[in-house]
Amino acid sequence: MLYRENGQFKTSYAADQQIFPIAQDRWAIFGLLVVAFIGVPLLVDEYLLRAILIPFLILSLAALGVNILVGFCGQITLGAGAFMAVGAYAAYNFHIRIEGLPLLVSLLLGGVTAAGVGIFFGIPSLRVRGLYLAVATLAAQFFTDWVFLRVPWFTGHASSGSVSVSNLQIMGWQIDTPVNKYLFCLMFLTVFALLAKNMTRCAVGRQWMAIRDMDVAAEVIGIRPLFAKLSAFAVSSFFVGTAGALWGFIHLASWEPAAFSVDRSFQLLFMVIIGGLGTIMGSFFGAAFIVILPIALNQFLPAFGALFGISISTAGVSHAELILFGGLIIFFLIKEPHGIARLWSTGKEKLRLWPFPH
Amino acid sequence: MSRQSGEIILDLKNVSLSFGGVKALTDISFDVREHEIRAIIGPNGAGKSSMLNVINGVYRPQKGEIILRGQHFSRMNPYKAARAGISRTFQNIALFKGMNVIDNLMTGRNLKIRSNLIQQAFWWGAARREELLHRAKVEEVIDFLEIQHIRKTPVGRLPYGLQKRVDLGRALAMEPSILLLDEPMAGMNVEEKQDMCRFILDVNDQFGTTIVLIEHDMAVVMDISDRVVVLDYGRKIGDGDPDAVRANPEVISAYLGASH
Ligand SMILES: Nc1ncnc2c1ncn2[C@@H]1O[C@H](COP(=O)(O)OP(=O)(O)OP(=O)(O)O)[C@@H](O)[C@H]1O
Ligand SMILES: [Mg+2]
């Protein structure tokens, strides 16, 4: 069947406002969900789950959060790692301090706490923008690094903030095997992606984008920058914080503040730039790209070098990775600010016209 | 023109505005009556745009006050102005470039949204109903402005004339009682100008919207406006119906002075 919207006439605005107005897209997403929920757990081995898929899911969630703030609301942040840390350590505190609190609630409360901290560090955005805001959010990064390293209360008096969780379960369902961890994260991501999509196609999403595109005009039609910006910080930090909690609890199981260093903040920012600013899809592309690239380079670069008689060390590979990231970011910022997601949608647009491009 | 103008709806008293040493407006007073089309004219840099920016609170005048339906504002701000039913278009189009036409117009419905963030996140209850309701309203504006064919186009890709029309659409989506238009026809060809004139007259006529219009094209101004204010170097040099203003010697000399 050709990829067409011909013959799919919308007879109501409700039909036109669906998330995927084209039927083929709906089927594709449905197929993808079936594969993700049923196919992958049956077919994929544990290494792949642990090393690629679980990090991909959690980082996609974090990238979604960063994209809401940077891509949709146009507020730069270099503090995503900090909000992940807040989410992880807050969830940890709820988990150990409140006897019998369900795991799900602890994780979500981690996100909520991150949202609160996000609002606080978002306040400068009402006054400054661009580089200055980047510096203000960077302050969040250094502040939380310091807090979790030096203030024992937040980390249950663990030395240098290293904590661990074990025996995680939800109503008797043990989240211990890689498959279960994968499914757990997948459920989170599916629900959160849906929430993000809904927000971005509703009034609040339009407020964010209006502030991003032309803040004076936004004010003139009655959008309050205060509410728009701080709600973007809150929602973004909630997503990022929840991702942080999952990263700590599910992916790592034991962690220290270094797991959420400034490197992580940059990595998340790279993801949304490469994947596509201001698109939900872009967050997934970016996360996939950044999770897979280092592994792919590790596998192939030495072999590739050997072809030409050059031996490439592990250090060489990780340098190559940085060079490649740097180059790609410059490329995308200059050539295609909407990232891989735009390449994807241009491709789809061509496909819609194919085979008669006129 | 035989339109019925009503009571004074907007009254500016002794407004002065300066930027550092530049006096953009000096002691300006004028009023706007309900349902009328009120033009502001003047040479470049006369302070016309500044005047609109004062009315809807983008600029804070150092002196003077604004009386809107009997209510005094010494400090207007854009949000209050929007709440009070003032909407506007911009001299340099200020659309939301990353959004399509529908979404741009939907932002104009912002003040009428009642559902909260949580309902919107779940596309649930009031949020869902509102999206449908406002979409229907926005489609009315789209039909009115005859831009059905571009409703899904990102505004950045539209030609200039259509962008101007979408800018008007976004202002109309607010269902304003006072509409401020900053050179809505600048840079348009004759046909586009005629369309725009027709839309402005129709808005005024069908919805009873009061219109404050800045325009350089004298023929247009004389043709469609009920009363005209003339500014020059931030001062008011003329005010009255088009014929009176045209005959005003000060106005004639300002325009002759500006033209060479
Ligand atoms: N934000 C601002 N900062 C500094 N000066 C300003 C600002 N806005 C306007 N001015 C100055 O105020 C004066 C009036 O400008 P304004 O834009 O109101 O003129 P105008 O009548 O709209 O002109 P035009 O026909 O060119 O649009 C000009 O001297 C301008 O340089
Ligand atoms: Mg102007």
UniProtKB/TrEMBL annotation, chain A:
Keywords: Cell membrane, Membrane, Transmembrane, Transmembrane helix. Signal peptide: none annotated. Its main location: membrane. The keyword Transmembrane applies. Pfam families: BPD_transp_2 (PF02653). PANTHER family: ABC TRANSPORTER PERMEASE PROTEIN, HIGH-AFFINITY BRANCHED-CHAIN AMINO ACID TRANSPORT SYSTEM PERMEASE. This is Leucine/isoleucine/valine transporter permease subunit. It comes from Candidatus Accumulibacter vicinus.
From TrEMBL, chain B:
Residues 10-258 form the ABC transporter domain. One of its GO terms (molecular function) is ATP binding. InterPro entries: AAA+_ATPase, ABC_AA/LPS_Transport, ABC_transporter-like_ATP-bd, BCA_ABC_TP_C, P-loop_NTPase. Its EC number is 3.6.3.-. The gene is lptB_3. Keywords: ATP-binding, Cell membrane, Hydrolase, Membrane, Nucleotide-binding, Transport. This is Lipopolysaccharide export system ATP-binding protein LptB. One of its GO terms (cellular component) is plasma membrane. The keyword Membrane applies. Pfam families: ABC_tran, BCA_ABC_TP_C. SMART domains: AAA.
